[in-house]
Amino acid sequence: MYSCFSLVSRMGANASALEKEIGSDQFPPSEHYFGLVNFGNTCYCNSVLQALYFCKPFRDRVLAYKTAPKKKETLLTCLSDLFNSINTQKKKVGVVAPKKFVARLKKENEVFDNYMQQDAHEFLIYLLNTIADLLQAERKADKIAGKGKPGTPNGIINGNNNDMKTEPTWIHEIFQGTLTNETRCLCCEGVSSKDEDFLDLSVDVEQNTSITHCLRGFSNTETLCHEYKYYCETCCSKQEAQKRMQVKKLPQLLALHLKRFKYMEQSHRYTKLSYRVVFPLELRLMNTSDDAEAPDKLYDLVSVVVHCGSGPNRGHYITIVKSFGFWLLFDDDMVEKIEISSIEEFYGLATEVQKNSDSGYILFYQARDL
Ligand SMILES: [Zn+2]
Predict the structure, then answer these.
(1) Residue ranges of the USP domain (predicted)?
(2) Alpha-carbon distance 361 to 303, whole Å?
(3) Which of 195, 221, 256, 362 lies at 20 to 30 Å from 157 by C-alpha?
(4) Catalytic residue status for 316
């Protein structure tokens, strides 16, 4: 019988080379660097799991979930088993096989139930939403069973559970931010605003730019005119208006998705935009609203999911992560230490001679005041 998460014997050379390179006196105590076995185009999954493992607030919550009473198998119990298996290894470096997690993923969502390359961002969002749904369902079940926390209305279900749906889970505490969508009527100057929550931000990319530029573009003022006029409640008619979207609540962990895959009308397929987009190690959001709390919050880059290759359904995903001051590259079962100076190799290509590039695709920034 195959035992899940068993050490794969071929780890050998690569792993010990990494351990030697870091050096025993430099190796962070109680930290583990483990590659993940690829089960046939599952690098989209491996790359996101590694990126999330090095997002400390997320890792801590997933590890702690293990200690909860025995539950039926879900994507979250499988993820917790996987993270715990890495976290409790006697060796510092090696390889584990996320077999149970991948099997559960394929069972739960037919999109992932094949051997084709999938979109890492689609997987990330699916994973975060699935965990949030599981936590909300558990809370609801606990309330029905009368195990509601003291102070909450004694677990009685009054037929209207809609409010429980919006109660934040730790997924929301970690990743959720709020955008405010402001519309100004150009006739009466009246402003209406609507808030919407996000777990990640997807930004358009342009050639030879930076993340700050992409975020500014995201919050650019847009004029609504012609057939797109806006119905103004004050004017009681359709009017031209200006609209912009800004960050009102900054998340603890900012997940930024670069929209590198663009649908081409002519060819009816997606093409990759390998544009060079510089991502800094430290980031401040410039597109915050006037009423944002702590708008100058400083973010540190903690991990990057990198897409290698020319198209969404081809190519490969790897991850670079920061751990205890140095940078590591995770490529399925391979882990290596990289120099900070080589991070710029993952910005993309400054010229469009070829589309094949290793370019940052999902960036994870963690707020520093944690
Ligand atoms: Zn108006």
Answers:
(1) 34-368
(2) 11
(3) 195
(4) yes
